[in-house]
Amino acid sequence: MANVPIKVPGVGESISEGILARWMKSEGDYVKSGEPLFELETDKASNVVPAPADGTLKITAVEGTTVEIGSTVGELDPSGTPSASPAPASAGSPAPKAVKAESTAPAPAEGASTATDVRMGPAARRLAAETGVDVSQVAGSGP
What we know:
By secondary structure, the protein is mainly beta. Helix content is 7%, strand content 27%. The protein is built from 1 helix and 8 strands, in the order ββββββββα. It has one helix at residues 122-131; strands at residues 4-7, 17-23, 30-31, 36-41, 46-50, 55-59, 66-68, 72-77. The strands form 2 sheets. The chain has a 4-stranded antiparallel beta sheet, with no helix packed on it. Strands 5-4-2-7 form a 4-stranded antiparallel beta sheet, with no helix packed on it. The longest helix is centred in the last third of the chain and has 10 residues, at 122-131. The radius of gyration is 19 Å and the shape is elongated.
């Protein structure tokens, strides 16, 4: 059986490319059809792309790469077999969700905002992180 290509799906009529933000599975993992495979980030939204078929994952595009809509970013080998035991979590796998403990940090002064209060799109969030900008210190131009 031939390998199944993993293609970047169309996410909107005016979107022609996106950033492969992160793989949710690792190279060599066995995935089932419909499982979350990777996160595609565009100027307007972040989308989780599901696996198109069952098989063993082969990654051909690295995280952080700008990818064209319709391009191939990996493939699934349907003849691959699932491992008998679950693989340990790797850097590319999502971490288990933990229950958030109450913070002992002091509350911000009245009228002050924190980075979690700031609403911004994925592209702005990525740009701020890449350039080291403290978004709580930036005055917004909109609501």
